[in-house]
């Protein structure tokens, strides 16, 4: 390329860089997360394009993530774990040098071996769900597929090998996967052309400007949408309650008595079985996820305590879900739960969980109606990712009557050793019993998927509930062991 033409491209680039910086600053104020993906064969110019973009952006609000051969930790987590936990906050831009597509292709073609998944179609659907979830949350996802002629690619590789300082770049983990990778990526891009920007890498001057111009166009369009949205009426947060719902809880009312003697005998035996279950889960590298939801004072903590009574503490973790922190609020609401996903062979127990979005956040108006309505599908997709990975997911809702709750509240209030368990918020929640009842029934109806079922437990009798939960966990795990 002639010097005159190079100067022309450099002048255009300077203008584009200024625009990109401006748009990043403005969209940060609108709390728009941006994800920019670069895919392409080995030595196609992805690194150069990524670096030019990094130079154009404010490093305080920009991060770079390079997909790599999974580490030992990443191998023991679900397929999309490393990407969800490394997704931007609502004020950041993340650049991905290769992405979930590269990992998917490497796994499909056995470049990276993983026996935990039954087929690649599952992973492709997970990718679609992942991107949909992020877009619905407001993420601007910009995907580039960098194409390069074979002669040009060979020239890039030769340069890398000739320089001892860049030789390592010619040894990427996927360099031997180029042919299969290109075939798969061409298919993916062709099937979803509207979501990809194809870049023909010829010279860095032309390709860098093309990438910058594409990003400027996308971000300018997004800014117009955000300005328009700011002028519209705020989204409704009334929880869309109408009193019409499937009364699932009604089937689990009443009392189930269990004597103290019978309870004590069965509890000791079941807890020893639970310890054996933990060892077998570890040996077979099966993660177990136990979710506990229920009315205030229903006995969630008591059930959890009986499950872990004789377990090895190095093999389980209890997550008590409270109000999200400032950092968590700047991410998709499932981000903090993806971070807590157990590795293979370990147990994660949740004392309240991601279902807060469709219960307390719906009732209290902390989330908009649209946020709640789409959460049912997002939660189902999240749990499907966990079960695709081989996790056993059991979700318990401990149900007690309104009368039983009142008895327990009053008993806690009168006991100096338990008075700390009862708060003003508990009493306020009780006043909204009918709203919570509708929200809970909707939740049980819309998120009861086959591989991650809801198990409603009558908790009016604490002893009965604890034994039933333990028996259910042991049975589900034993069935999995026999199935395998």
From TrEMBL:
Q: Where is the Polyphosphate kinase-2-related domain?
A: 5-225, 258-477
Top-level taxon: Bacteria
From the UniProt record, list the coiled-coil ranges. Answer: 209-236
Q: Name one GO molecular function term.
A: transferase activity
Tell me which InterPro entries the record gives.
P-loop_NTPase, PPK2-related
UniProt keyword terms in alphabetical order: Coiled coil, Transferase
Coiled coil as a keyword of this entry, yes or no, is yes
What is the name attached to this protein's record?
Polyphosphate:AMP phosphotransferase
């Amino acid at each position: 390329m002639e010097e005159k033409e190079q100067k022309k491209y450099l002048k255009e680039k300077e203008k584009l860089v200024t625009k990109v910086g401006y748009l990043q600053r403005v969209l940060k104020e609108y709390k728009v997360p941006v994800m920019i993906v670069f895919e392409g064969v080995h030595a196609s110019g992805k690194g150069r394009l990524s670096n030019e973009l990094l130079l154009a952006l404010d490093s305080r609000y920009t991060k770079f993530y390079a997909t790599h051969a999974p580490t030992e930790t990443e191998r023991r987590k679900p397929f999309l774990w490393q990407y969800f936990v490394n997704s931007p906050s609502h004020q950041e831009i993340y650049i991905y040098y290769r992405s979930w597509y590269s990992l998917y292709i490497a796994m499909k073609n056995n470049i990276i071996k993983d026996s935990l998944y039954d087929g690649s179609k599952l992973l492709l659907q997970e990718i679609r769900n992942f991107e949909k979830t992020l877009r619905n949350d407001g993420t601007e996802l910009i995907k580039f597929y960098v194409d390069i002629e074979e002669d040009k690619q060979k020239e890039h590789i030769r340069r890398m090998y000739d320089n001892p300082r860049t030789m390592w770049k010619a040894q990427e983990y996927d360099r031997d996967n180029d042919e299969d990778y290109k075939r798969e990526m061409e298919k993916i891009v062709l099937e979803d052309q509207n979501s990809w920007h194809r870049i023909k890498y010829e010279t860095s001057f032309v390709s860098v400007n093309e990438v910058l111009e594409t990003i400027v166009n996308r971000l300018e369009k997004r800014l117009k949408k955000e300005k328009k949205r700011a002028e519209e009426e705020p989204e409704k947060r009334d929880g869309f309650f109408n009193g019409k719902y499937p009364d699932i809880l009604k089937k689990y009312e009443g009392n189930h008595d269990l004597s103290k003697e019978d309870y004590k005998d069965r509890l000791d035996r079941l807890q020893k079985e639970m310890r054996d279950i933990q060892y077998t889960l570890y040996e077979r590298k099966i993660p177990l996820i136990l979710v506990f939801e229920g009315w205030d004072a229903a006995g969630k903590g008591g059930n959890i305590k009986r499950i872990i009574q004789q377990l090895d503490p190095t093999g389980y973790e209890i997550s008590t879900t409270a109000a999200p922190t400032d950092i968590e609020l700047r991410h998709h609401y499932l981000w903090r739960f993806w971070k807590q996903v157990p590795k293979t062979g370990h147990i994660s127990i949740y004392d309240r969980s991601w279902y807060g979005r469709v219960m307390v956040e719906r009732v209290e108006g902390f989330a908009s109606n649209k946020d709640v309505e789409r959460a049912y599908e997002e939660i189902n997709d999240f749990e499907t990712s966990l079960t695709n990975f081989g996790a056993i997911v059991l979700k318990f809702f401990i149900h007690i009557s309104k009368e039983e709750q009142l008895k327990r509240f009053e008993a806690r209030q009168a006991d100096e050793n338990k008075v700390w368990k009862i708060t003003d918020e508990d009493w306020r929640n009780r006043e909204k019993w009918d709203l919570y009842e509708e929200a809970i029934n909707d939740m049980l109806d819309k998120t009861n998927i086959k591989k991650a079922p809801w198990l409603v437990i009558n908790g009016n009798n604490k002893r009965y509930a604890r034994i039933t939960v333990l028996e259910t966990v042991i049975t589900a795990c034993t069935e999995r062991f026999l199935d395998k």
